[in-house]
Amino acid sequence: DDIQFKLSACDFNIAVCQSMADTFERLGAKHTHLLHSGVDISRFVVHPAPAHKQLELLFVGRLVEKKGIVYALQALALIAENQRPHLDIVGQGPSQKQLYDLVKKLKLNAFVRLLGYRSPHWIGREGANYDGFVAPFCTSEDGDRNTEPMVLKEAMAMGLPVITSDVMGCSEIVTKDTGYIVSPKDTISLKLAISSFMQCPNNVREQLRVLARQRV
Question: Which of 33, 75, 102, 147 sits in a 20 to 30 Å window from 136, CA-based?
């Protein structure tokens, strides 16, 4: 609520993405510096696309409203069962029970697993065994949202194509050569992006993996 005062009181400001820098400038900030966050790619295993009969997708993050996991579940429910990807959700948080209930309500028990906490070592080692990463971020009802999410860069460091939404910084990380960007809270667009990724030939999917790692 007092961001304008804070920005005006600072000798300089650091923004972690261009969208944040633009927001700071719009709020009257002076001497704003853009400094993107990096990721240590040596922490993440990468290998060719695994051979899965159906897509295996991964989400990693705190289970809260702004992560948009509800929309990922709704999108999966719109895909025919014989084609529907599997989704592993790694993380804990206050939305955990809501997500359990929604998985049951949408009859996704055979397709979605809530794995709870997994260590950074587990993620770095096992992440590359998935086909892609889904992160449908959004702005929560109280205005909270992600800013240049590091988890997207970490997923790409594992060679995972990313399906995410156009919130602050995401479109600066993910390109059309490394994944898909959809509108926040747009279940239909998210379903179409997942379906498009499903239909990619193996060589195209492999190229997405290579380019994701290269971009990071």
Answer: 33
End-to-end CA distance of the chain: 33
**pLDDT value of residue 22:** 92
Q: Give Cα separations from 213 to 70, 104, 133, 164, 175 (angstroms).
A: 28, 35, 13, 16, 12
Quick one: pLDDT at residue 156? 96
Q: How far apart are CA 133 and CA 151, in angstroms?
A: 10
| Residue of 151, 70, 62, 139 lying closest to 108 (CA atoms) | 70
Q: Identify any residues that bridge with 56 across adjacent strands, giving them in sequence order.
A: 86
Element (H, E) at 114: strand 112-116
**How far, in Å, CA of 193 to CA of 143, rounded?**
26
**Phi and psi at residue 44, to the nearest 5°:** -125, 125
Hey, what are 17's tokens?
A: 């993405």
Q: What per-residue confidence (pLDDT) applies to 60?
A: 97
Supply 67's token pair. Answer: 């992560």
Tokens (6 digits) for 100: 């359990």
Report the sign of the C-alpha dihedral through residues 75, 77, 80, 86, in that order.
positive
Closest CA to 215 of 19, 18, 39: 39
Percent of the chain at pLDDT > 90 equals: 76
- Nearest Cα neighbor of 73 from 116, 104, 94 is 104
Q: What mean pLDDT do residues 160-187 have?
A: 94
Q: Report the pLDDT averaged over residues 59-81.
A: 96
The answer, as to whether pTM is greater than 0.85, is yes
